[in-house]
Amino acid sequence: QRFARRSRPRFFSAVRGFCTRVERYEGQRSEEARRRQALDNRLPSDSLTIISAAKTQYMANDIPYPFRQNSNFYYLTGFEEPNAILVIDKESASPTKFVLFVNPRDAEQ
């Protein structure tokens, strides 16, 4: 074979033709934690970093586009819900705090 096949992530889809959710792989959470730690090591002392998730976009009043998460947010968190915020609070005297703000869970969904 001239070209080797590359393994590609498998996708779930709510609507045929739209890739809406990527399967999590084993070790992904530890990888995301390592990425956050690498970012933490590059941040200056006494800094605050805010990274927001993507927002739900609508075609019409009640018809949403297929959701695609902000790549930077997903790279650090692996979280696929809209309207979330990651706050990284790096104080010189205490350990860095990683806080994820999310919307309340909707019981109807």
Describe this structure in words.
- The chain is an alpha+beta fold and about 110 residues long.
- The protein has a three-stranded antiparallel β-sheet, covered by helices on one side. A two-stranded antiparallel ribbon has the order 1-2. A two-stranded antiparallel sheet has the order 4-5.
- The longest helix is centred in the first third of the chain and has 15 residues.
- The radius of gyration is 17 Å and the shape is globular.
- The N and C termini lie far apart (about 45 Å).
- The N terminus is likely disordered.
> What radius of gyration results from the CA coordinates?
17 Å
Number of strands: 7
SS summary, helix count = 2
Unreliable runs: 3-19
Helix content: 10-25%
Write down the oligomeric state.
single chain
Main sheet: strands, sense, barrel: 3 strands, antiparallel
The structural class is alpha+beta
- In terms of DSSP E residues, the strand content is 15-25%
Spatial shape: globular
Strand order of the largest sheet: 3-6-7
